[in-house]
């Protein structure tokens, strides 16, 4: 303050003298006053900014106490509205609203001013209220569902710590933990050694596989690009996940270079046709470098015959990747792991514990049989600001250069904590229970009029048509398929608007729309399964 007073005094003096000169007219005088007041304002502004800057630096702009109170209230809302009600069969799975109505209710636009605590808590309640409860015992729509409290605790702690998995210095616990979890998954595959990384989803794990396989065949490609290598060919079944197509496009291989392999009536790849396609690709001048076998196809839940596919790959020296994003968790079950017989012969595997094991999104492991550092060589960029070679600890623990990411979320902790809580046998029980649910429903379907299985389930995908009374006995009619294909979408609309349950449907090849029901949630009971079939009948019998 003192300094500013003296400053304004100094500035005023010479000009003050000039104001008394007669040649100054009224206009000039007015401009002069304007100038003076402008100078004064600037000085005051400067003072204000200086005081504010001092204040800014000396006091936090975050009310820690209010923040803690807010969090406690939010946790309470999460427990009550999201978890307790979300898992209660008598509550709605979703409170359906048309997009325009939902926009109105939520008032989503972001504004200049902040809102008071009560309003924010109200908003949190609304977000939960109008979201789909994937932990609800009647949510059968996705390949993930349910809620494991230990996995959720892991997710919350991970979010709270807000770290990145790339170096030991910033994530010491999680670097060690990730390796333990990946080793456990590799052991279940049957590999004593190997490598791997948690990826943001199965689609990305599948892309990693292609990238590593390409680098394995043509290391120069990393530097010189696809121009330095022959035209590549990828082989996968017609029933594979669409991420193979996306990965091929993303990596510049080109979707025209996917050779689709036929499947049998259950949806399994036919190895003889795979070999035929490989020979065909070679005759067209392409370089077959990657075979993707799927264990647990997305719609039918089919497992490709790995041992026979591995024989073909060995004969032609092609990388074998197994997309076990969906079916990989069957490896935990002594009773059902035979579905993946031969998986240990794969070069790489994608496995999503966030699906059948219920860790919560996302938790996807990309696992490699190679233990020579292929993953690191393929992806490393050696950034000196992150992966300094002269660090004070063993930099072998800085695993982040193995990935195509920089910052990487911690995805291992939720799985680790859940595994610690349930043990391997507890997880095995869960997997077996999911198979038992599906068996029960498939048997029930056979007893009920109007229900028809698309295929006998081998895994936990229950695919079926509901044929309403008006269509029964009319299989020979010309428009039968057309009319049957319209049944599932109407039933779906009705269940969503009622909020009673959720299940997916889709067409597949020449099969018109059918339901695909998935139960992974161990909170589901026989009562929920019976409700499911009864509700389909209730919602569709008038169609
Ligand atoms: C067989 C299969 N592979 C890969 C994926 C992709 O996994 P994500 O959704 O984690 O990208 C899915 C997803 O459903 C799948 O069913």
From TrEMBL:
Its cofactor is pyridoxal 5'-phosphate. One of its GO terms (biological process) is carboxylic acid metabolic process. It holds the Pfam family Pyridoxal_deC. InterPro entries: PyrdxlP-dep_de-COase (IPR002129), PyrdxlP-dep_Trfase (IPR015424), PyrdxlP-dep_Trfase_major (IPR015421), Pyridoxal-P_BS (IPR021115). The modification N6-(pyridoxal phosphate)lysine is found at residue 355. It comes from the Eukaryota. GO terms for molecular function: pyridoxal phosphate binding; sulfinoalanine decarboxylase activity. Keywords: Decarboxylase, Lyase, Pyridoxal phosphate. GO terms for cellular component: cytoplasm. Homodimer. Belongs to the group II decarboxylase family. This is Cysteine sulfinic acid decarboxylase. It comes from Phrynocephalus forsythii.
């Amino acid at each position: 303050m003192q300094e500013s007073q003296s400053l304004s005094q100094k500035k005023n003096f010479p000009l003050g003298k000039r104001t008394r000169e007669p040649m100054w007219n009224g206009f000039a005088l007015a401009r002069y006053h304007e100038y003076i007041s402008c100078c004064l304002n600037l000085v005051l502004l400067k003072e204000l900014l200086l005081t504010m800057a001092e204040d800014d630096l000396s006091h936090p702009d975050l009310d820690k106490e209010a923040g803690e109170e807010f969090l406690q209230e939010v946790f309470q809302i999460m427990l009550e509205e999201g978890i307790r009600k979300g898992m209660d069969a008598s509550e709605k799975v979703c409170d359906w609203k048309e997009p325009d109505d939902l926009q109105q209710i939520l008032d989503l636009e972001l504004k200049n001013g902040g809102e008071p605590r009560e309003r924010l808590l109200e908003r949190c309640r609304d977000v939960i209220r109008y979201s789909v409860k994937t932990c609800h015992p009647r949510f059968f729509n996705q390949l993930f569902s349910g809620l494991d409290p230990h996995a959720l605790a892991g997710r919350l702690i991970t979010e709270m710590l807000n770290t990145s998995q790339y170096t030991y210095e910033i994530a010491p616990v999680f670097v060690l933990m990730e390796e333990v979890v990946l080793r456990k998954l590799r052991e279940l595959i049957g590999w004593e050694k190997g490598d791997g990384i948690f990826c943001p989803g199965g689609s990305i794990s599948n892309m990693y596989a292609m990238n590593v396989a390409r680098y394995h065949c043509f290391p120069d490609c990393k530097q010189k690009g696809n121009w330095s290598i022959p035209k590549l060919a990828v082989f996968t079944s017609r029933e594979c996940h669409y991420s193979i197509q996306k990965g091929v496009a993303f990596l510049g291989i080109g979707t025209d270079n996917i050779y689709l392999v036929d499947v049998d009536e259950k949806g399994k790849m036919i190895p003889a046709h795979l070999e035929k396609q490989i020979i065909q690709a070679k005759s067209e001048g392409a370089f077959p470098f990657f075979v993707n076998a799927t264990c647990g196809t997305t719609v039918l839940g089919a497992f490709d015959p790995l041992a026979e596919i591995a024989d073909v790959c060995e004969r032609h020296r092609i990388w074998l990747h197994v997309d076990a994003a969906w079916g990989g968790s069957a490896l935990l079950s002594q009773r059902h792991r035979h579905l993946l017989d031969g998986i240990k012969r794969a070069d790489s595997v994608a496995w999503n514990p966030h699906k059948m094991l219920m860790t919560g999104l996302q938790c996807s492991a990309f696992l490699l049989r190679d233990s020579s550092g292929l993953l690191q060589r393929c992806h490393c960029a050696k950034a000196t600001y992150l992966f300094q070679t002269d660090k004070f600890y063993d930099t072998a623990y800085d695993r982040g250069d193995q990935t195509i990411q920089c910052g990487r979320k911690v995805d291992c902790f939720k799985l680790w904590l859940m595994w610690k809580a349930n043990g391997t046998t507890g997880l095995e029980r869960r997997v077996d229970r999911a198979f038992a649910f599906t068996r029960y429903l498939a048997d029930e379907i056979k007893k009920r009029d109007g229900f028809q299985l698309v295929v006998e389930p081998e895994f936990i995908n229950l695919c079926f048509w509901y044929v309403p009374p008006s269509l029964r006995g009319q299989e020979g009619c010309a428009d039968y398929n057309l009319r049957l294909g319209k049944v599932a979408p109407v039933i779906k609309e009705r269940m969503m608007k009622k909020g009673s349950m959720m299940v997916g449907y889709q067409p597949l090849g020449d099969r018109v729309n059918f339901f695909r029901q998935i139960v992974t949630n161990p909170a589901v009971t026989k009562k929920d399964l019976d409700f499911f079939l009864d509700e389909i009948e209730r919602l569709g019998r008038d169609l």
